[in-house]
Amino acid sequence: MSNPKPQFNYGRPWRRLKARAFALYGPICWMCGGRATHLDHLDPVQWHGTKMPTIDRVRPACAKCNIGRGNRTRHLGKPKRVAVNSQVW
């Protein structure tokens, strides 16, 4: 018998983490540079189970990249680097 998919519902803490991650990293997918709507676990959920990940272990991602990457540790392609200015012009 195979192991069932872990069931977790982070609820409000997950929504807070998502808001913090989008504020910190911006609404840009870390894999393709597109518009991010999801929050991607950098480590597979199986590694940390139902325990809430920390801000440094998640990144904004678009639905296509997040779902396509699945439970792997590597992204599908070369990550898109987004230029960030340290000065306000």
Mean pLDDT: 76
Largest sheet: 2 strands, antiparallel
Helix content: 25-40%
Give Rg in angstroms: 14 Å
How many β strands by DSSP?
A: 2
H/E order of the elements? HEHEH
- Label the structural class: alpha+beta
Strand fraction: 5-15%
Distance between the termini: 60 Å
**Arrangement of strands in the largest sheet:** 1-2
Account of the 3D structure:
The protein has three helices and two strands. With 89 residues, the chain is of the alpha+beta class. It has a two-stranded antiparallel ribbon with strand order 1-2. The longest helix is centred in the N-terminal third of the chain and has 14 residues, at 12-25. It is globular. It starts with 11 loop residues before the first helix and ends in a 20-residue tail after the last helix. The model has no long low-confidence stretch (mean pLDDT 76).
Features:
two-stranded antiparallel sheet, globular, about 90 residues, alpha+beta, 3 helices
The gist of it:
Strands 1-2 form a two-stranded antiparallel ribbon.
Helix/strand layout:
Layout: H1 12-25, E1 38-41, H2 45-48, E2 58-61, H3 63-69
